[in-house]
Design goal:
0% strand
């Protein structure tokens, strides 16, 4: 990442072992067990459908839980950051921000957070993607899973 600074175009994080191996294998396994169940219905092949579905769900839950935990940590970090850099009047209004909006604001430099919060509260930036696209001075987050 040091050679290529993070920005809106390249900030999405892909974890190759998860996205390109574990997840596809679990999904293929589930669909293959369904095919086998249709080809040879029975208790054994039906059980493998259930086990395959459970494994696929487990993989998705593990990923979802870790990203939700990161979202909570980011929300706390941003709350502390906002207390340091925003005026008391704007700080009171930040409680109206949604969690995805706060998470998107983590990429904004300290000098533009107040302006972006104002735009969000005015209804000019509703979606996290819009917030990220409006950022001029990108602040990298390379720790995201």
């Amino acid at each position: 990442m040091a050679d290529n600074p993070q920005n809106f175009a390249n900030h999405t994080r892909w974890h190759p072992p998860f996205h390109f191996f574990v997840l596809p294998v679990m999904l293929i396994n589930f669909f293959w067990s369904m095919v086998e169940f249709v080809r040879a219905p029975g208790l054994n092949s039906g059980w493998w459908v259930v086990v395959s579905l459970a494994l696929a769900m487990l993989v998705l839950f593990v990923r979802t839980y870790s990203t939700r935990l990161q979202d909570r940590i980011i929300r706390l970090e941003e709350k502390l950051r906002h207390q340091q850099i925003l005026s008391p009047a704007i700080l009171q209004q930040t409680s109206a921000l949604t969690t995805p909006q706060v998470i998107a604001l983590r990429f904004a430099g300290d000098d533009e957070v107040a302006e972006l919060v104002g735009a969000i509260l005015a209804g000019n930036l509703a979606r996290p993607k819009e917030v990220k696209q409006a950022i001029k001075n990108w602040r990298a987050d390379t720790f995201r899973v």
